[in-house]
TrEMBL record:
Highest taxon of the lineage: Bacteria
Listed InterPro entries: DAGK (IPR000829), DAGK_sf (IPR036945), UDPK (IPR033717)
Binding residues for a divalent metal cation: 23, 71
Positions annotated to bind ATP: 12, 23, 71, 80-82, 89-90
Organism in which the protein naturally occurs: Emticicia agri
Pfam families cross-referenced by the UniProt entry: DAGK_prokar (PF01219)
GO biological process, one term: phospholipid biosynthetic process
Protein name per the record: Diacylglycerol kinase family protein
Main location: membrane
Family per record: Belongs to the bacterial diacylglycerol kinase family.
Keyword Transmembrane listed: yes
Keyword field: ATP-binding, Cell membrane, Kinase, Lipid biosynthesis, Lipid metabolism, Magnesium, Membrane, Metal-binding, Nucleotide-binding, Phospholipid biosynthesis, Phospholipid metabolism, Transferase, Transmembrane, Transmembrane helix
């Protein structure tokens, strides 16, 4: 096991997270994540519910990171307008939208009954 190489890889991965955090969408995801965690603490989620919320929030972040990577690669590959680059970017953004919609549905299923019970 090459520990220095592994530590370097971690450094690059954290650099990637830093790049991601410069994106406007990532800042919105950060805001949404904080709201979800605070609401979860307020309404008192079970460990199963925290596990589900963690998975879905993580999936949204992973999708956004890949979307950002694909966007940057597209911008590098073609500085000009090209219909195929447009499709690649739209597909990548579509993937984030799909998982975000699923996250909203899961959020409603888990949070709504608890919020209504606390009213
Ligand atoms: N080079 C291109 N060729 C064709 N269509 C493009 C190109 N760049 C962007 N588009 C279209 O514009 C949409 C938005 O692209 P992009 O996310 O790069 O723009 P933006 O939202 O202004 O960028 P950023 O997120 O960096 O502010 C894409 O989904 C795609 O439909």
């Amino acid at each position: 096991m090459n520990v220095p190489k592994m530590l370097r890889s971690f450094k690059y991965a954290f650099q990637g997270i830093w790049v991601l955090m410069q994106e406007n969408n990532a800042r919105f995801h950060l805001f949404a994540t904080v709201v979800v965690v605070l609401t979860g603490l307020l309404v008192g989620l079970s460990s199963d519910e925290w596990a589900i919320i963690s998975i879905i929030v993580g999936l949204v972040w992973v999708a956004e990171a890949f979307n950002t990577a694909i966007e940057k690669l597209c911008d590098f590959v073609s500085t000009e307008h090209h219909p195929l680059i447009g499709k690649v970017k739209d597909l990548s953004a579509g993937a984030v939208l799909i998982i975000s919609c699923i996250a909203v549905i899961i959020g409603i299923i888990i949070f709504l009954p608890k919020i209504l019970a606390n009213l």
